[in-house]
Input
Amino acid sequence: MAYTLNVNGASHSVEVDEATPLLWVLRDILDLKGAKYGCGAGLCGACTVHIDGAAVRSCVTPVSGVGTRAVTTIEGISDNPLGKKLQDAWLEIDVAQCGYCQPGQIMSATALLSKTPKPTDADIDAQMSGNICRCATYNRIRTAIKLAAGDAAKKEG
Amino acid sequence: MGFQNSKHGATRSTVTRRSFLKVSAATGGGLMLSFNLAPLAKALANIPGESAIGAFIRIGMDGIVTIAAKNPEIGQGIKTSLPMIIAEELDVDWKDVRVETAPMDAEKFGLQSAGGSTSIPRNWDNMRRVGAAGRQMLVTAAAKTWRVPESELTTASGVVMHAASNRALKYGELATKAALLPAPDLKTVTLKDPKTFKVVGKPTKDVDGPAMVHGKPLYGIDVSVPGMLYATYEKCPVFGGTVARANLDEVKAMPGVRHAFVVPGTIKPGEVGLNAGLSGGVAIVADTWWQANVARRKLRVEWNEGPMAAQSSKGFAARAAELAKQKPEMSVRSDGDVDAALKGAVKVLEASYSYPFLAHATMEPQNCTAHFSNGKMEIWVPTQNGANGRGMIARTMGIPEKDITVHMTRAGGGFGRRGSPDPMIEAAWISKEAGAPVKLVWTREDDMRHDCYRPGGYHNFKAGIDGSGKLVALTDHFVSFGSDGKFAGSANMGGNIFPAEFVPNLSFGASLMPLGTPTGPLRAPGSNGLAFVFQSFLDEIAHAAGRDPLEFHLDLLSEKRVAAPAASTSGGPQAPAFNPARMRTTLALVAEKAGWGKRTVPKGTGLGLAYYYSHQGYVAHVAEVTTTSSGQMKVNKIWVAADVGGQIVNPSGAENQVQGAVLDGLGQILGQEITIARGGTVEGNFDTFPLLRMHQAPPVEVHFQLSESSPTGLGEPALPPTLPAIANAYFAATGQRLRDVPFNKPRDRDVRV
Output
């Protein structure tokens, strides 16, 4: 089947089976390697991307369900001011160890701050518990989200 | 994070052998330093197999310094920390440094592996000398340019200066000239006074950070090669099993499938372990990985499972209980007269402990890209030990090692898993048969069901306490895995496991059960299970003796009661002897930071402590644990003190490693268990093998105790004390002992897919 996808603001035509998960279209057809394969079952969050601003697990999202909605991946998240702030905060806090899960973490965190600009610890727990970090950099992920949120709040105020 | 100074156990390697260094002009100008430090490396590292190091430094005329990172990066931060050491002695600003992963080339770089927390202790002195040699050559080039004595020259921030004449030259301006000079003797190069360090010891961000947060391709799974096909590979659920028949024609008819074929495998019956050979299975090669896996759903294989298919976790537990009632099959250590001491004891304690099999579950599943062409093999792989995989490809496929090129990518976690060669040999074989470059990516289920697991273990203890509350006798009957008196991989126990040498009457014995499942090193191998059982049982002893655990342990650590045996096997053959003074200081520090004995906690909340010496590191924890209304264990906070020598190379990376290791341990104790049924692994994904998640992760407060020892590694030693500290805190909170982990044990999970 032919699909036209809107990814990071650009239009892409792909010819794939309708059940193909968005993750594998992004990675192996469009050569966007930022979203990662971790579990293939929506359990780990490494594949997280945004569809119309909402965080989704691209490994269990069939390409046929995407339609014309805007797909944003880690490669395009710098265009979102919150995404950029989070990327900067991730670097400032030196969050990563192996780093494999971190694109998914940043995508989930961007969705969190979009809805909840000043998240509490409970908000962070609720939104971020779908993203596994096997290196367990959770202390620093929390700190980085708070850093980005503080900055975001200042700019708005 | 904080630092404390102390004076314990300083040891230094001395250099006695000759060494030399070669210099060549880099293409496009600039300085490239090539070293052959074979004799030096041997003398310094004191570890067999360390044979050479190579081309480390390139200085461009623009002053940008490119430093090669010799060892694989698996999340332990070594790609940042080893180049920091070179940059320090080269005397350049870190902002001017770029880091490249070194090619895999033992002639130039020596041992290029990640494992055993050895990269820092093996390379600390080598990397300093490499940097200092580079600095020396730039100073010599400046001295010749200005016709002044070298002794009048100083360096700073990539500049050579002559104060007397107020002249300065940047390294970039000197690089071409320096490249033509003879090399200094590495053993006599001048090293900096550590007090003047500007790079080492400063929190430094991961060099791949910017690429990571923008989703740039960094990992093995991100590799693209022109004309590449994608492979999935189905192996027998029982290790060593082979294909009897498979419906290949049906699979080949699926969309996108280019090849589907049986790989016979090379593992001989009865051999166990991922180094035993190529596992047989069915390879499906397609235009996309997804197509390969859709086709795989149609695959029906009849396996020759072999005799190991009779094994199960339930069977192991039942057999371990039987063996526990008998005398150990073999003695591991025996001191004094345990029977007499137990008879004379005022109090005798008995307890049995167990820990489960564990998977590594790296976030990036095992994968490898291979391209066989014209008799040569090219490999791209996230690995901890590329040489191991290359050796297996050479042996299995008859390709000379010199014709196998290995590119090490950044790895999405390692934890010991990627020292095994299986993804490399599988991809290599499939590429050759498919006649194309092939990227093999394991599914999560492949990864979890075809691991080299941390072996489970069963410990059966007895202890005797005298009238003064001292531990006077200890026995452990360890029921483990192996055969013919030989422990399975990472299933062993050495004779010097603490508190051996600190208890006058002590015996360790072991009995072995045959095992068909591969086992191998998982972060802090051996120690990760042994610390849990020994530090938990010691806590039981302290409580039974009516003593505060901290006071009990500081007292226990104060006096060696028995000399070390000549042939102890734990901790690595070259590991320095356990220094109880360093352990005591570290334990006292963490107790102080956690407010041990100084503050009251609410009812239902408890503090527990534990400590362990592993991988040359001394680490102590205090955990604060409470329970939720639903009976779940909740860890509020963990304090850690670690002594890994006198110099923390990168405090940011170091703190991250400690926090990660501790939370890794928390994940293990909460709910991780691999179940064997019909010879295969039941769990396949993160629903049944739960990794720690954000809402379960408490703050981890880290303190470094600085001693006079040379720096040692930090990937592993902070994990072992975690489980017992939490279990002991859980006891303090609830009065319940956790003797069988995990806390949330899988029930009735005995059906293999």
